[in-house]
Amino acid sequence: MRRFQPGIAPTLVVLVLLPLLVCLGFWQMSRSEQKRVLLENHAQRRTSEPVAGEQLKAMPDPAFRRVRLSGQFDAEHSYLLDNRMRDDRVGVELLQPFHDESSGLWLLVNRGWLPWPDRRTPPVFSTPTQRLEIGAWVYVSPGATFQLGADPANASWPRLVTVVEPDKLWAELGRTGFNYELRQEFGPAAYEAGWPVVSEGMGPEKHVAYAVQWFAMALALFGLYLYLGWHNAREKHHGSGHESTEHS
Asked: Where are the transmembrane segments (predicted)?
């Protein structure tokens, strides 16, 4: 009778890689479900009537809520969110504090995308000084932003950053502010403000495709392991049979 004999090294490799590949597949499936729910919430709330600034503070889940604000931008403290691409063009997104008069609340408003083709010169933008009424919606990131390194603390303004952290800005400025980014709708003071909820090409279906790849790799690894085990057993069986014939 031939026994299954894959060998110690292949067994150790499978014990390490197989659970990892399966876990990666299920992780991608969970990411797909998260983004599906995210897109559904966005579609539902983006069609609702906008709320006033003071209502945001009492909302347990403000994600994607539309809001009407009335007040002024702070031109002295501007964030330039780096590495933003639009139509294969490199640029930044401009974020500035906005003081809402009705609520007395400070909100960090993303005014939109600006081209930045030449890094030898800073991006060009202007800030209205008059009182404005603007529409915006609350953006909540679907996950933590990957950073190669932390943004420099207490850099000069306007400040080039790779991640938006409103709570740290309000703490630095000593202000009472809303701890989520708001993205301005088309209107006064807005730059290029077409906002994808998730990164282009990274919708739920993309994560499902990645999950299928991880599961396929796990299945292929397990199949190879089975083949190797039975193949080694057959080779040893033939070898022992050949030796028995020679001795007889």
From this structure: 208-228
List helix spans (H) across 115-197.
166-173
95 within some domain: yes
Q: Domain count for the chain, please give it.
A: 2
Return d(Cα 223, Cα 109) in angstroms, integer. 53
Structure pTM? 0.69
Helices marked H in the chain: 8-46, 53-56, 166-173, 204-247
Residue 4, domain member (yes or no): yes
Domain of 32 in residue numbering reads as 1-47+206-231
The yes-or-no verdict on residue 151 having pLDDT over 80 is: no
Residue written as token pair 């995210």: 38
Q: Are residues 137 and 173 in the same domain?
A: yes
Q: What is the pLDDT of residue 242?
A: 47
Average pLDDT, the chain: 85
Is 241 inside any structural domain?
no
Task: Please name every residue paired with 91 in a beta bridge, in sequence order, or none if there are none.
Answer: 84, 115
In 3D space, the residue among 24, 27, 23, 22 whose CA is nearest the CA of residue 222 turns out to be 22
Tell whether 58 and 173 lie within a shared domain. Answer: yes
Does a structural domain hold residue 201?
no
Question: Tokens in use for 16?
Answer: 């390490």
Say yes or no: 21 and 127 in one domain: no
**Token digits for 11?**
């067994």
* Nearest-angstrom CA–CA distance, 39 and 50: 18
Whole-number percent of the chain with pLDDT over 90:
48
Rounded (10°) angle between helices 204-247 and 8-46:
170
